[in-house]
Amino acid sequence: MDELLGKKVPFSSQAEQAVIGSILIDPDCVPAxxxxxxxxxxxxxLNREIxxxxxxxxxxxxxxxxxTILNQMRVRGVYQDNCEQYLAEVMRMTPTAANVLxxxxxxxxxxxxxxxxxxxxxxxxxxxxxxxEADAALEAAERKIYALRQGRNVGGLLPISSxxxxxxDNLTEAAVSGKKFPGISTGLPDLDRMILGLNKSELILIAxxxxxxxxxxxxNMALYAGxxxxxxxxxxxxxxxxxxxxxxxxxxxxxxxSQNLMTGQLTDRQWKDVSDAAQMISTTDIRIDDNPTLTVxxxxxxxxxxxxLDLVVIDxxxxxxxxGSGHSWSNESRTQAVSDISRMLxxxxxxxxxxxxxxxxxxxxxxxxxxKRPMLSDLRExxxxxxxxxxxxxxxxxxxxxxxxxxxxxxxxxxxxxxxGATGTVPLNWLPEYTSFSSVERRYDDEG
Length: 448
Fold this sequence. Notes:
Rossmann fold; 2 domains; nine-stranded mixed beta sheet; 9 strands
């Protein structure tokens, strides 16, 4: 079609053939090529089918040479009468396999240009068809460009073979790494074991009544990911200022009571600890936005511009606005708005391919019950929140309600929903002087 319209489609037949030829000359180069190039980045149909066949053979440990490739193409139903002659020709034309990664880079560059052109055509069509508002068109355009930057397509049907390959790669990576769970650690081992860490594309909801420690546990996770694991973390705080959040992080990192930090009443030793903690936190890639009027689209746009983002934390759901809305809500419209926001958060987690932790208020329903532990039905303006979330964690501290509690600092992280497995209760220590949590199985002063 593009050729009929006089457009020159970006592709390099020579580079595509040189990649195939290099694989045939030296199959040892296949692992490096597989990391650099996908089958759908080839423009020539036969080149694409040959490379896709090689990819599958490599994934399942089949010997790669011209004879086995031709045999597998027959098995897969993509063999053509000229295939044998074509393989011989590309082998003859390829000068050396030593430059295969340079050839692959050319193929990938042309594929990116083609996709950019397709995205531009789609954006043009969206604009000139006049469907939707400018904000929606801009959001869709940003999503398409971001997907290109990440090397992914937006939507579209994928053959199951490519999905199986991705799952197989993830399984291999997990086996090699030796980790007990696939996600980012929360810093709380018992909780990690139950929810398998914070996993890519998941929406993790932490819900509780005010004062239970929602912000504290989320900051614990953010600090652990940023300081102990070297992850890039984005925190959106719609309630507290940047300075308040950093004060909490300093209190946790330096193990100095937050009250002392607020009043400045510090011993020489504590000054040294705060200084050391400030230096450590300063070296992390944790970013904070405290704009109280942010929408999901605003957050998503900011996150798309962060290289190698690993984790997003949002405090908290009920303070967020839908795009273009203000704060005047009826109960019915607010419920719908919060449901829309939770859906957009789940879409954001999938698009960014990172875990998104969102805090949420619980309704007062638990206050009238004898057992005040949170339930899924307690989610305020619940609508679709519990449906969209992959993991829902409710926080409970008996000492908050019962002054005569035997252990007022014993907290419970109650996993109310877990798409990956079991639900249940994880005991935690509440450290009120540091507004922080620690695992019951370890003393907080032994933690790194």
